[in-house]
Design a protein that fits this description.
Layout (H helix, E strand, L loop, with lengths): L3 E5 L3 E6 L2 E6 L9 E4 L3 E6 L5 E2 L1 H9 L3 E5 L5 E5 L8 H9 L3 H25 L5 H8 L10 H13 L11 H23 L18 H6 L4 H11 L10 H8 L5 E4 L2 E4 H18 L9 E2 L9
């Protein structure tokens, strides 16, 4: 299984040769070394530097090897992801099962997702040495089918105030929010990649249903992974309210894909856990049993250094 995540933080020309990613730094002299990485080893590429050049042949190869390619905006925050199209051998069969899913079943799946998200938020607070974990675990047990009483929103308010401060507002333009948004975008892209590789249409969600969102289903399934990003921000990153994200911060956040989680009492990194989750979603649809959906549980953070 591919396992490497490549961050391009300096100007470079990216191309392919002999099933390898070729990275040639763009420098003013002839001292820049060329690097190669086997495409079969790569899971994603992040183009953090906007001066980077990518050949069309490489774009085709990235799709062929099902490698996600992230782009960034002028603030160097992820704003797009290229994912492979129509990789599944029975895409129509999978799509039909997705379209024919009944609402009661979808609501029970959403109940499981929200419950696990709140449990992971509790685990995040406990790992970070904050109060409120037991209260969130109590709330998690009250989540109903479809989360009719919106426990998710109530838990989020308590959670972020405990993790950061009582004055914290999730939608503010500050360091913590910028860092979390960066990490969320990375996880969202990997979830979308996995859904497409299994033949699903990511615009058709279980709970999220915006007609302007092409990733409703990805937004559904990334929810239990959000607290992993939050813990990384709270425990590993330091910055004042108005600070910008540094290259070191972004490298650390990109490392979220290598963080360990538990799925069905087995350890996986986040990338592999996403694949296990989506695969179990397929099985759950076939059995019509929400209990067959395998979702991640948070564990301690390990610091990773990326290429």
């Amino acid at each position: 299984m591919s396992h490497r995540h490549v961050l391009i933080s300096n100007p470079a020309k990216l191309s392919s040769r002999n099933e390898q990613l070729v990275i040639r730094p763009i420098v003013t002299d002839a001292s820049g070394d060329t690097y190669t990485i086997p495409l079969e080893d790569i899971r994603s590429v992040m183009l953090e530097d906007r001066a980077t050049i990518v050949t069309s042949a490489l774009l085709s190869k990235l799709a062929e090897f099902n490698i996600s390619l992230y782009t960034c905006d002028e603030k160097h925050l992820p704003n797009g992801v290229m994912i492979a199209y129509n990789q599944h051998s029975r895409a129509l069969k999978v799509l039909k099962s997705q379209l024919h899913m009944n609402r009661p079943f979808a609501k029970r799946l959403w109940q499981s997702i929200v419950k696990r998200k709140i449990e992971n938020q509790a685990g995040c607070l406990e790992q970070a040495g904050c109060q409120g974990g037991s209260r969130l675990r109590t709330l998690a047990r009250t989540v109903e089918s479809g989360d009719r009483s919106n426990v998710e929103s109530h838990a989020a308010r308590l959670y972020f105030q405990s993790l950061f401060s009582e004055s914290f507002v999730r939608r503010n333009d500050d360091f913590a929010n910028s860092a979390m948004n960066y990490g969320y975008a990375i996880v969202r892209g990997q979830v979308a990649r996995a859904l497409c590789s299994y033949g699903y249409l990511p615009s058709i969600g279980l709970h999220h249903h915006s007609e302007l969102n092409n990733f409703n289903l990805a937004d559904d399934f990334m929810e239990p992974f959000r607290p992993i990003v939050d813990l990384l921000v709270a425990s590993e990153l330091t910055g004042d309210e108005h600070d910008d994200l540094t290259p070191r911060h972004k490298q650390c956040l990109y490392g979220v894909l290598a963080q360990e989680v538990l799925v069905n009492n087995q350890k996986f990194n986040v990338t592999a856990a996403i694949d296990v989750m989506v695969s179990s979603f397929t099985h759950s649809i076939s059995t019509l049993d929400p209990g067959d959906l395998l979702l991640p549980s948070i564990t301690a953070i390990r610091t990773e250094v990326y290429e």
